[in-house]
Amino acid sequence: MHEQPDGAALLEAARGVLLEELLPHLPEGLRFAARMVANAMAIAAREARQDGDQQAKCLAAVAALTGPGDAPLAAFAKAIRAGGFDPGTPQHAAAAAALMDLARARCTVSAPKALAESPFRAAE
Predict the structure, then answer these.
(1) Is residue 12 part of a domain?
(2) Domain check: are 76 and 40 in the same one?
(3) Over the stretch 93-106, which tens digit does the pLDDT of each residue have?
(4) Residue 63 lies in a domain
(5) What domain of life (predicted)?
(6) What CA–CA distance (Å, rounded) separates 73 from 121?
(7) How many CB atoms neighbour CB 7 within 10 A?
(8) By the 8 A CB rule, do 59 and 76 touch?
(9) How far apart are alpha carbons 103 and 120 in whole angstroms?
(10) Could you give the residue ranges of the DSSP H alpha helices within 22-111?
(11) pLDDT tens per residue across span 16-74
């Protein structure tokens, strides 16, 4: 159980201060760096709010394809490189679905605007 405000809310508040109060007073040469920091804070806040169930579901789908192990994503990548999920293989559709779910989960954190514009967004 987390106290309020949680870490994501604190990051959002600090980001607001950076962009609205500090950035206008920074020299032009530091504004780009401040915007990069603000962007990193936004990503960290979205990551903190990400649905843990969605992440667990993605990892479970990958583990179902690769078998038990400590590094299911590494095993998945290795199997893909080896052609284990190429078109025509029995698990191709499941692997493609797992990849799409992983990509959506990552874009939800790192590039939500791109996901909103993508034809690959989740069905609603």
Answers:
(1) yes
(2) no
(3) 999 999 999 988 88
(4) yes
(5) Bacteria
(6) 22
(7) 13
(8) no
(9) 9
(10) 28-49, 52-66, 72-81, 92-110
(11) 999 999 999 999 999 999 999 999 999 999 888 887 778 888 889 999 999 888 899 99
CA distance 64 to 82: 17
- Model's pTM, two decimal places? 0.69
One-letter amino acid at 38 equals: A
Q: Look at the alpha carbons of 87, 89, 93, 94 in this order and tell me if their dihedral is positive or negative.
A: negative
Count structural domains, the chain. Answer: 2
Amino acid at 42: A
Q: Note whether residue 29 is domain-resident.
A: yes
User: Within 13 Å, how many C-alpha atoms sit on residue 66's CB side?
Assistant: 24
Question: What span, in angstroms and rounded, lies between the C-alpha atoms of 66 and 82?
Answer: 12
Q: Which residue has the tokens 């843990």?
A: 52
- Asked whether residue 24 falls in the same domain as residue 59, the answer is no
Do 44 and 70 fall into the same domain? Answer: no
> In the prediction, which pLDDT does 70 show?
85
Take residue 112 and report the two structure tokens written for it: 């939500």
**Residue 109: strand, helix, or coil:** helix
